[in-house]
Amino acid sequence: MSQVQISRHPLVQHKLTLLRRTVTEPKKFRELVRELTQFLLYEATLDLPLKDRPIETPLAPIVGKQIGVQIGLVPILRAGLGMVDPIIDLIPTAHVWHLGLYRDHATLEPVTYYNKLPPEAEVDLCLVLDPMLATGGSAIAAVDILKRWGAQQIKFLGLIAAPEGVKALTEAHPDIPIHLAALDDHLNDKAYIVPGLGDAGDRQFGTG
Ligand code: PRP
Ligand code: URA
What we know:
It is a single chain. The protein contains 6 helices and 15 strands. Strands 1, 4, 5, 6, 7, 8, 10 and 12 form an 8-stranded mixed beta sheet that branches. It has a 3-stranded parallel beta sheet with strand order 9-11-13. Strands 2-3 form a two-stranded antiparallel sheet. The site of 1-O-pyrophosphono-5-O-phosphono-alpha-D-ribofuranose has 24 residues, from β4, β6, β9, α4 and α6.
């Protein structure tokens, strides 16, 4: 489980508690997803390579730093959408490639309905974005697609996971680091995360 990082930041735990509350309405829910995503991004990018960038300050020339890799964001529709803007606010050069996957309610298997990857895998690091890692089926399918496409380095960023989803994703793709705000207790008989927060897509977009 060494590839699984669960944030210990007090602000993450505080905001996650607000996010989980049944009374948190979609506007507040989206704001919290946004704030939590920026904390997770901070933790997931601590090892980003840098390259030198010579600049001049008003007082002297110095060799500064700049991010040395091209980053691609891969939000899983719908719920991953809310994690895109807070990242491109911080990394405006990131590319965004949408993947549409939904869980079939009967089989719980992921169904791919949209894929906006360009023909060539031209980035160094792909961040797969989805607030919920439940059975792991959607995340595994997304990583399968990215690997077949030729992605070199992939990380998963999610807000809440079930142990079942972490186990499945880790077994299917042991090389993929998983960054989370919380690891919850279990899945219920409809494969919802308990205690979780309900349906992350419905709660962001008010479609419950
Ligand atoms: C949710 C969530 C994940 C998936 C997780 O999406 O955003 O994509 O379920 O479940 P899994 O780990 O068991 O695959 P959902 O299928 O509800 O689609 P939506 O975002 O369009 O509501
Ligand atoms: N998808 C969600 O949005 N919530 C869950 O608990 C499980 C899957």
